[in-house]
Automatic annotation (TrEMBL):
<dbReference type="Pfam" id="PF13175">
    <property type="entry name" value="AAA_15"/>
</dbReference>
<feature type="domain" description="Endonuclease GajA/Old nuclease/RecF-like AAA">
    <location>
        <begin position="22"/>
        <end position="72"/>
    </location>
</feature>
<dbReference type="InterPro" id="IPR027417">
    <property type="entry name" value="P-loop_NTPase"/>
</dbReference>
<dbReference type="InterPro" id="IPR041685">
    <property type="entry name" value="AAA_GajA/Old/RecF-like"/>
</dbReference>
<keyword id="KW-0067">ATP-binding</keyword>
<protein>
    <submittedName>
        <fullName>ATP-binding protein</fullName>
    </submittedName>
</protein>
<dbReference type="GO" id="GO:0005524">
    <property type="term" value="F:ATP binding"/>
</dbReference>
<keyword id="KW-0547">Nucleotide-binding</keyword>
């Protein structure tokens, strides 16, 4: 990882959020737990509502979307599954196939044999794992048009450029312990410099991409207090230690306030220092007059040529109109949910995956949370009608892409979870009724069998 100048200007106190650049456009589920095989979903680039009754797999879908967007399937290393998904990125489109299948089912459909995959060398005759993992990442570049294909399994990786072999390498590894993005990052280093340069921004943006599900309770609130961050100082250079999820502005601020941390043992950040950050938004919405975010210095170790600092015990305090101060632990349940969701937004600038977003929130807070989702691509569940009051729908096509209905069906004696977008006909009828403006969206969804 490149060093950062200690006196650099990574942090701007009036920072603006960058435009998210990656979007999930399609997901095909060939096999995943008790989800109906052959499930095909399309997604809106903005807000996607996951709707349905309890027990139909709405949370299961959100967890799967989290895996897909992180391209991290390590939690499924002992499960059979087969997925395909498509992502758009400026100047390119990415199509991913990933599976973990028994040897008899490991060859891809469409007539391609294992030899066609050009994964070298062939397997040894030793007894292998019960399940065989496989990844394929196709990257269609624009201007000029170039198709890159990376294929990898438990014994190797290969690359093709416009249908021609570029290189292959033996890799005896546990493939699914690595994300698709890490495999891409590791293996793309062998491509020609011109191709690596065209992938540079993709590699930078995806290497640490891991949008978690914001749960229906206080999981994120509890996580805030257990976060730790380390950095190493060598002269005027600063090296982050480890891979962790932090607000984009925080590492630079810790770097620039090292002397304060060393003298006081902590760093305090006022709400008005970051006017678009989670703290300023919470203070405004919750009616406080001031707020501060404290990060404590947990450990400092000096050695020849530098020192190492470890930070943690993140916490907030808020001043009420009468001058009294509340810690974050003294907030009400709904306030804790609001604070942690705004913090979650600071962590995730590209995607939001939120389960029962409106749970415990006043309608005014729900409206504010939905407003602050933009411009991220968001996937949200809710059984609260207040959520639907603030969802704009501009066309029947947008209705179809923005709604994902979760249900169940009995097929061949087995009950499956059935996930689908509305049919074009249902989307057209629903949008027509929505345009009339005399019926709440939640009621319309129930009338059309979607909620």
């Amino acid at each position: 990882m490149a060093a950062l100048g200690r006196a650099g200007t990574l942090l701007s106190f009036s920072f603006s959020w960058r435009e998210p650049s990656m979007k999930l456009t399609k997901l095909n589920i060939h096999g995943y737990r008790d989800v109906a095989p052959g499930t095909q979903l399309v997604f809106s680039p903005s807000l996607n509502l996951v709707i349905g009754e309890n027990g139909t797999g709405r949370t299961t879908l959100l967890d799967l979307l989290s895996r897909v967007l992180a391209s991290d399937f390590s939690g499924l290393i002992r499960e059979e599954f087969s997925l395909e998904y498509t992502l758009s990125f400026p100047g390119m489109e990415l199509h991913v196939r990933v599976r973990n299948a028994r040897p008899s089912a490991a060859a891809p459909t469409g007539g391609a044999s294992r030899e066609d995959l050009a994964l070298l060398p062939p397997r040894s005759q030793e007894k292998g794992p019960e399940l065989e993992p496989f990844m394929e990442l196709s990257i269609q570049l624009e201007s000029p048009s170039t198709l890159l294909v990376m294929r990898s399994d438990a014994v190797g990786v290969s690359w093709e450029v416009d249908g021609q072999p570029a290189y292959s390498q033996t890799m005896h590894w546990s493939l699914l312990d690595r994300t698709v993005w890490v495999v891409l990052f590791m293996t793309a280093q062998r491509l020609e410099p011109e191709l690596r340069e065209r992938l540079k921004e993709l590699l930078r943006r995806t290497f640490l991409m891991a949008p978690a599900r914001f749960d229906e309770s206080l999981g994120m609130f509890q996580q805030m207090g257990t976060t730790q961050y380390g950095m190493e100082l060598r002269g005027e250079e600063v090296f982050p230690l480890g891979l962790m999820s932090l607000p984009r502005w925080l590492p630079g601020l810790l770097r620039d306030r090292t002397e304060q941390a060393l003298s006081a043992g902590f760093i305090d950040i006022r709400h008005d220092e970051l006017e678009q950050g989670f703290l300023a938004r919470f203070v405004s919405l919750a009616g406080f007059t001031a707020g501060k975010f404290r990060v404590e210095l947990l450990k400092q170790r000096s050695y020849e040529g530098g020192e190492r600092l470890e930070f943690g015990h993140f916490g907030c305090g808020f001043t009420r109109r009468d001058g009294s101060v509340l810690s974050q632990e003294q907030l009400g349940h709904g306030q804790k949910r609001l604070l942690s969701f705004l913090y979650y937004l600071d962590l995730n600038e590209d995607f939001v995956i939120a389960d029962e977003l409106a749970n415990g929130l006043h309608p005014r807070f729900v409206e504010a949370c939905l407003r602050h989702l933009s411009p991220r691509q968001s996937f949200v569940t809710s059984q609260n009608p207040a959520t639907f009051e603030h969802v704009p729908l501009g066309s029947a096509e947008e209705v179809r892409a923005s709604l994902i209905h979760c249900g169940t069906a009995l097929q061949d004696g087995r009950e499956w979870k059935v996930w689908s977008n509305p049919t074009p006909e249902t989307a057209t009828r629903l949008f027509g009724a929505y345009q009339r403006g005399d019926t709440p969206l939640g009621t319309l969804l129930r009338q059309h069998g979607l909620w």
